[in-house]
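Please check this today:
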Amino acid sequence: MIALTSALALALAGCAGGSAEPTAESAGAQSPGAEGPATEAPAASTPAPGAEPSPGSGAPAEATPLTGVVGTDDDPEAYAIALLDASGAPVESLPAGTYALTFADRSSMHNFRLRGPGVDVATEVAGSDESTVEVTLEPGTYEIVCDPHAGTMRAEIEVT
């Protein structure tokens, strides 16, 4: 699941023309200084940034739903961008944690990018996208932005 989420995040960042930094997991690297034969689970010891399981009981926590929206229901090409919670209310701050981010990008001239500490996921500009990715947000400031219209379509989200 972690590898799939990381690969999807990298693919989405690449589609938007952005750059995602490779991780040890995505590059197939092993931790330096590791001794002995390789095990079948190196990914569990080197999760990608933004895709770590939550500490605790060992069972993955259920991801809280969020929706990244560009445009409006009435006008998909409108110069509007927002991150919405499960009730549909705009989000300005969030607690750190794992989120299921659903892109509601119905526009062919906008994209939705979420960028912050260890996270950079985006939709493609030249098409619509209705996909979901799982992201782990650490404390810090995150930006939501439409890359082609960054001067007017941007907002910040504080994660505490």
Q: What stands out?
A: The helical segments are 2-15, 24-27, 42-45. The chain has one domain: 2-20+62-159. The first strand starts at residue 64 and ends at 70.
